[in-house]
Amino acid sequence: MLVLTSCCVKYTFKGANLPKEVKTFSVTYIENKASIVAPQLSNVLTEKLKNKLTNETSLKSVRTDGDLQFSGFISNYSVSNAGQQSNNQVANNRLTITVDIVCKNLKDTTLNFKQQFTNFADFPGTQNLNSVETKLINDISDLLVIEIFNKAVINW
Asked: Is the pLDDT of residue 32 over 80?
C-alpha cells in the first residue's frame, strides 16, 4: 500500500513575511551624520529603501505614519586601506558605509528593531575615490537595503 503524505507551505508575496494587517510603510529621509558627507548618499539610500519596499511587497508607500516606519541616519562613511602590494603600494582601498536604522511595526511591535548595518566595497588603490564614488555608493546602498529589508520584512 502506498502512503502519501503532504505538507503545508505558507507562501508570501515575493518572500515578504509581514502580518496581514500591515498595509503601508513610510521612510523618513536618512540623514548623513558621518564625519565625511557624500552629498548624494542620503537620497540614494532613502530612495532605494522606498523602491525595494514598493517593488517587493504589496505595501503602499505613505509620506508619514505608515504601519511599518523606517527612520535612521548614516553614522559612518570612511575609506581605508584594504590591502598592500609587496612594494608597499596600496593594492585596494575600501569604502565602508554604516547606517543606523529604526524600524517600527505598528501592527506587531515584537518585530520592531533598532540596528546598525554596515557594508563595504573595495576599489583599486590606483583609482581616486571621486572617479568611482557614485558606483560604490549605489553598490553599497543596494547591499544595505537588502539587509534592512530582510530584517524588517523577511525577519532574517
From this structure: yes
**How far apart, in whole angstroms, are the C-alpha atoms of residue 149 and residue 68?**
11
Is residue 93 assigned to a domain? no
CA angle 145, 24, 52 (to 5 degrees): 25
In a domain, 88, yes or no: no
- Whether 30 maps to a domain, the answer reads yes
The mean pLDDT value of the chain amounts to 88
Looking up residue 24, the CATH number of its domain turns out to be: 3.30.360
Domain of residue 149: give its range: 19-76+99-120+133-154
What pTM did the predictor assign?
0.86
Q: Beta strands 68-84 and 60-61: pairing type?
A: unpaired
Is the confidence at residue 16, as pLDDT, over 80? no
- Domain assignment of residue 89, yes or no: no
